[in-house]
Amino acid sequence: MANLILNYVPVYAMLPLGVVTPDNNFQNQDDIKRQLYKLKEAEVDGVMVDVWWGIIESKGPKQYDWKAYRSLFQVIKDCGLKVQAIMSFHQCGGNVGDGVFIPLPQWVLQVGDGNPDIFYTNRRGTRNKEYLTLGVDNEPIIGGRTPIQAYSDYMKSFRENMSDFLDAGTIVDIEVGLGPAGELRYPSYPQNQGWNYPGIGEFQCYDKYLKQDFKKAATDAGHPEWELPENAGQYNDRPESTEFFRNNGTYVTERGRFFLTWYSNKLLIHGDQILEEATKAFCGCKVKVAAKQVSGIHWWYKDGSHAGELTAGYYNLRDRDGYRPIARMLSRHYGVLDFTCLEMKDYEQPGYASSAPQELVQQVLSASWRENIEVAGENALPRYDPNAYNQMLLNARPNGVNRDGPPKLKMYGLTYLRLSNQLLDGWNFGVFKAFVKKMHADQVRILFKP
Questions:
Q1: Is residue 225 one of the residues assigned to a domain?
Q2: CATH number for the domain including 231?
């Protein structure tokens, strides 16, 4: 029994995006209960659920309505499952797998009608309304509050209104959304603006606030003549077709390195500020605070420029670890780093994408463990095949099972994307149950031998 506990990796399942509807109702309760009991039958530990800012505070500043989520959490508790609650400060819709549209609160969007620079902006001036630009984090632009204050107030209200579920141990994790799709990144590859895999994406720092910030930083560094990049291409370009990312391009020059350092540091400061507010809001609660996700941008990983990562804000090169600074920032909050694409293998990706998800996952996990923080993970795309599950098992316990004590390295938990009737159907459900058993038990990793 001791080994069973020592090797145990919890498994959660993401609930459907629209489990609470955009108009703040918990519908289809009987169907959800049936699915939750199936998860319990598979010995899943709990579920992850988005708690949408655009739903809860939709009627006006500080007008929170938690009733539908309280009903949902009660059903989850009654089914004997735990909750990972995501503080979702982003829009639902416009990303991979989004079948529901939940915008930011309308009163926030109305501020943007008069001041569109509150949204992330690309070089051509196209705005992205998925998430407020980090350039306004400390600007009192929404009803006299800064976005950081609005996020803080929201989390404090969640704690106050969900105190019974927190005290009872039903809610075990607070996953803090830090950007588009809840991820700590810039919205560099938006499908709703025409991006297609494996495009390099675009830098998203051309709103007036970030422009001013960069100009001040460059001036303070003694280079007032430096401007934001004008030669980094467009969403679907390849690195070699741009002056910025091509071999020995701008990204390796003094000016390019200065820009990339500034761009990535702004992202770190953004995450640090919000996680600081989360730590304060949930101080005294028996929950783990986590960064909802660091995105698994595996395309162009084998290219010298790592262009896809750079446009998203991850300053990662062959001679520069872009993920360890993120892990170090999280360590200040005793936070968990949640990473994605755990199910992917290199050979599954097209050669022209210069993709290496396996190496990327190893790098991020190693960076986290070297900074002595917990790391959790998710699959990037719904998969039901043994190959995907085996890869997740390998990443969850990279040193295998230790029969004489705790594994040297293991993940804090794994969340499967996503609960659906297809997952619970026949053969798919049988494979999933076997996967959960392997994640929990002191057994070899292989789910099914080829």
A1: yes
A2: 3.20.20.80
